[in-house]
Structures are given as C-alpha cells and as structure tokens.
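Milestone M4 deliverable, item 7.
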Amino acid sequence: MFCATAQDVINAIHWAREQGIALRARSGRHSLEGWSSVDGGLVIDVSRMKSISIDHTARTATVGTGLTQLETVTALGQHGFAVPTGSEGGVGLGGVILGGGFGLLTRSMGMACDSLIAADVVVAIGERSAKLIRACEDDHSDLLWACRGGGGGNFGIATSYTFALHELSDVTFLVARWGNHDQLADLLRMWQRDAPVADEKLTSALEIDANAIELCALRHGAGRQQLLAELAPLLAIGEPELTFIEGSWPTVYREVDRGPADVKLWKFYSQFVTSPFPEEALDMIVRFMSNTPSPASNFYCTSFGGAVRQAPPGGSAFPHRDALFYCEPGAAWNDPALNSQALAWAADFWQGPAAVQRRGLRQRPQRCRRRLGTRLLRRQLPTAPSSQGDLRPGQRLQLRAKRARPDRLRRSPLTWTNAVSRPGHDGPWCWTTDEPQARNRKPLRKGRGDPDPVTGPPTTRQ
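Output delivered:
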C-alpha cells in the first residue's frame, strides 16, 4: 500500500492487525537483506511522503519520511542549510536518521540522528489499532532517544522528522586516486592514524576496489590549499591523481554520490573500529583485496571522531561514539555462479581483521573493554576507571542511565502486540514478533545510512 499521509499509515496498520497478517514498511528500497518486503503480508510504502517545511527563524526543518538524501540536501541547500546525511542520494532519509547515519559531514556536524529534535511516529495502541504520536524533548522523550540511532522498525512507523539545521556555504571536495595497490598498507596505516584526529571540519574516506584506491575528503571553512596541507602526509605516498570540486554543498553532493549502478548483487559486513588495525590486520586486508571475487568488490573506511563523540542533548541510542572509524568489506557481483565465492569472501574478510584486532584488544588495558554493558565514551572518560568506585557521582549516573535504556526497548518490525506501558506515558509504543531479527546491509558506496525507516537495526551507515 502506498501511503500519502500519516492517516493512511494508521489505516493500513489497523487493517493488517484486524486481518492478523505480517507487515513491513518501505521507503528508500535499500534494504539489501529484503527486510522491507514480506511474502503473504502487507508492505506499507511511505516513499510518497515527501513534504518539507523550513522555519528560518528557528532554523529547523520538518520533512516527510519519503524524502531521499539527495532530495533533502537539495531542498535545504537552496536556503543555505544542511543536515549531516549519508552520501548516496537514492537512500531514503528515514532509515539513515533512525540508524544513526554518517557521511562526509559527520565529523563536523555529528551523526545524522544528532540533528533530530522531534519525530512523528505511528505506534500500536490497544489490540488492533494504531495512533500517531510526536516524540520530542518534552513528550515521549524516551522514544526520541530510541529514534536517534536505535534502528528502524523497532518502535513504530515514522512519518516525519524535525531537524535542527546547520548553516553551510561552499565546501571543497577532493578525490585522490592511486591506480594500483602498491601503497595500500602504507595508506591504510597513515589514514587510520591521522583521519580520526584531523580538524573536525575535515571528513575523509578510503575505498579500495580490485584495481585502485580512492581517498575522498570533504572540507568546509577552508579552501583547496588548506585541504592539501591537512592531507599532505597521505598525498605524499606514491603519485595519486588529484581531482578537486569546489562549490555549494548540493552541487558537490552530486559528485560525492558516485556509487556503481551496474551491480545487482551485494553483501556487506561492517565494523566500528575503536583502535587502529595492527600490522597483521593490515597485511590481511592487502591479501583479501588482491583476491576479490569481482572487480567491483571493495573495502571501505570512513573517519569518525570529532563531533561524533558529542551526543545531542537528551542522548541517543547510537552506541558507537568511541569509534575511530567505520569500515566494511563488500562483495559486489552480477553472475549468480559467483554467489558462494562472493559470500564466503565477504564473510572471511569481515572475520579476519576483526579477529586479529580482538586478540590485540585482549592484551590492552581495561579502557579498551566494554564494562557493565556500557561502552565508555572517550569524551566522558579519557581513561576508563578500574571500577565504578573510581567514577565521579555524575559519571556514575550517566553509566546507570545508559545501561537502563536498552532494557526498555523491545525490538522487531513485524507483528503488533500490546507492549508494556512506560511510566509517564499514555500507552505502549512498541511492537514485537516471533520472527528473528537480522543484520541489515544496503548497496551503498559511501556514507552508509539505513535502508528504510522501519526495517530493523542496521549494521552501520546506513
């Protein structure tokens, strides 16, 4: 069913619950694992909900969940505004926001979900019905917290989002290309050292395919010469070909959005990296990239740090703020005869460097570990304490709050039930299912965001 309004969504959910059938919601159609479709059930398509309203005085925008990232960037850019998004234009905005969302503005503006200040969400009510509620700082604040990176499809169907806007004028975008893998280990080693601690207005990404290496970097607030100076250690390795684009963010965004369009089959795995890859892992990456199942198969990394470490007021469910960078091996192919080879390559690639890194972490101090189910943010605790007794009172309260929050969430996207009402709220807002959750991936090239606003927790971008 194609919905044009929130009432259409309510009606669709009401009918599905009366009939006792499973449902899915769909927006940008980037759920690689197929979690935005269902056999024998109802697909609620919100891709036509493309409204946008900008309040110049308050510097906020309210947008429909059906907008794509390119449509959002273009509409806001006409007024000199931006919100951080992923970098592939065809991805639905809703899934990006609900899953966290990162791209080439991440280090300066934070995660996409950090700009979210309110969301309209259709939730379960009673035995068979649904209703629209608004999650904001003053009302249903726990749902707003969950919508900031908790993953789509866990709590309801989002129909619109309200963002705090950032002013953004011209930007400088650089692509450096090395035509072989001769310097791959050196580039990875230098990039993972420098990129997470660079100026916050600089975000960069490395992408390696079977034949070449590309560095993409976006800087605002400075020109070409400043960008070259900041990237000098990387650009001194080998003899890369350099391409510059300077202009407004919407103009540059169209060049950033350069994902391959001729590949039908994809499989990604993702990792949020909290300490640099050791030499053994770097050597393993070089070996995997010398033996790809297809020319388009790749390894992608994008830098974190900067504003990512600062959670928005009220906090967020996004759990990876201490990451230095995000990376993913991705198999891309067209011939079904390569299915087994490509899937095995991607799975082995994902497990190999990660296992090496885990072995290294076990030999590091406690500050690299999870404790009590909570990942300690470096911005709060530069050196993690050996016990809760070492925490200041305010820090202990923060940890308790972070541990308590996930226990309040019941996660799944399929059938609606009566969830337990939360204290201080007028009714349940979760749904649950007996079907297993699965990790979502999507066929994106850069700045991954989630695939759809209601399709289950992401493994990243998207």
